[in-house]
Design brief:
The protein has helices at residues 2-5, 7-20, 46-63, 66-83, 108-125, 128-145, 178-191, 194-210, 221-238, 245-265, 272-287, 295-306, 336-353; strands at 34-35, 40-41, 105-107, 146-147, 150-151, 154-156, 161-162, 269-271, 324-326, 329-330, 333-334. It is mainly alpha-helical. The chain has two domains: 81-209, Glycosyltransferase (Alpha/alpha barrel), CATH 1.50.10; 214-365, no CATH class. It has a three-stranded antiparallel sheet. Helix 2 (7-20) runs antiparallel to helix 13, helix 7 runs parallel beside helix 9 and helix 9 runs antiparallel to helix 10.
Length: 365
């Protein structure tokens, strides 16, 4: 239980990894991951930068560290001043020359994550430029990505035409998009514009209608683990409506289904973010009164997630969380999203065990 006894140390080490590892570049942008075997970062990603804004602000709120707030705002300014294309009203995928990307693309999922990060920064600063960009992106998500009863996952830029759907989960529509549709829910709460509230409701209805088809979704068990990560996004996206009976039922069924698949596949391939996502949803759903908490399963998931925090004399690695394991072998990806998700999940679990947990709708990174 050392991960419970040393929660402050765990959070400090995770936070220092964000600040000292070089995963955030001087521009404020954040790389998708660090390859420990190659000794270099992947490209800066607008989506991951959005996640980093939320992760760093969570660490600031949790620890009181102003250096986390400063890093979060550098990331937010990168998104509004550099990544955002006001002429297109779009956040292009990955901010770089994309020499191997023949045509620039925009992802619905990425846009929602970025908007939620900017809204977290808006709440921390009341800087209207952050809210203005978030709202503009939210309107564009409705105008450009919605397609009848569903949502196009990827658009070609600059024409904003949908890319042909592929076989990978992220290249097709599906229930996982509800996580990013939470941006519309958050924008509705911040602006009062019913257009955003209605858009979230449409996404919720569509996700509930199609979620049964998402798992297992592939005969390859390792790919099913990747789909568990995406399916967990669906579960997270349900939380704003957790007080509705049909949503509470979907949460209960989805938590149980994810847990079964995770336990079955993990000895072969395990992703740290799936443990963290499942634990966070369990805790939030339980504290919302939607799904009783399975303490034994939650404790198991917390213990497994804690195992992914890395120790090293190299600041590019130390304190970060590994993306995953194959068997006993840790994969060489030190990942900002895994670090943010796992750090938050373990902190929430600690708070639950000490009677201090008070999650809000905005709580999840």
């Amino acid at each position: 239980m050392s991960y419970l006894q040393n929660i402050d140390s765990m959070l400090h080490r995770a936070g220092q990894w964000f600040l000292r590892s070089g995963i955030q570049e001087p521009s404020g942008g954040v790389a998708r991951y660090y390859r420990s075997d190659l000794g270099k970062n992947a490209r800066v990603s607008t989506e991951i930068t959005g996640y980093a804004v939320s992760s760093l602000l969570y660490l600031a709120e949790r620890t009181g560290g102003t250096n986390y707030t400063e890093a979060a705002l550098r990331a937010a300014r990168f998104l509004t001043a550099t990544a955002w294309n006001p002429a297109l009203a779009a956040f292009p995928f990955e901010h770089s020359d994309n020499c191997d990307q023949p045509q620039p693309l925009a992802y619905f999922f990425d846009c929602g994550i970025i908007v939620r990060g900017l809204l977290q920064a808006w709440r921390a600063t009341r800087d209207h430029s952050l809210l203005d960009t978030a709202a503009a992106a939210g309107h564009a998500m409705i105008d450009d990505f919605e397609a009848g009863p569903g949502i196009h996952p990827i658009l070609r830029l600059p024409e904003k035409q949908p890319l042909e759907y592929g076989t990978k989960w992220s290249n097709g529509p599906g229930c996982y998009q509800l996580k990013s549709a939470m941006a519309w829910f958050d924008l509705y709460e911040e602006t009062g514009l019913e257009r955003f509230g209605h858009a979230y409701e449409r996404a919720l209805e569509a996700a509930l209608r199609c979620e049964d088809a998402f798992l297992p979704g592939d005969p390859d068990r390792e790919k099913v683990m990747d789909r568990l990560h995406a399916y967990s996004y669906f579960l997270e996206g349900l939380l704003p409506a957790a007080d509705r009976p049909e949503v509470a039922h979907a949460l209960a069924e989805g938590i149980a289904k994810t847990s079964r698949y995770l336990c079955d596949i993990a000895p072969r391939f395990a992703r740290s973010d799936v443990y963290a996502q499942l634990l966070r949803v369990r805790l939030c759903a339980a504290h919302a009164g939607a799904v009783p908490l399975d303490e034994t399963s939650a404790s198991f998931e917390a213990a497994r997630a804690a195992e992914f925090q890395l120790a090293s004399g190299d600041p590019r690695i130390d304190g970060g969380f590994a993306f995953g394991k194959k068997g006993a072998d840790v994969l060489p990806f030190v990942n900002p999203v895994s670090t943010g998700f796992c750090a938050q999940a373990l902190a929430l679990w600690h708070d639950h065990r000490t009677g201090a947990l008070n999650p809000t709708r905005h709580a999840l990174i």
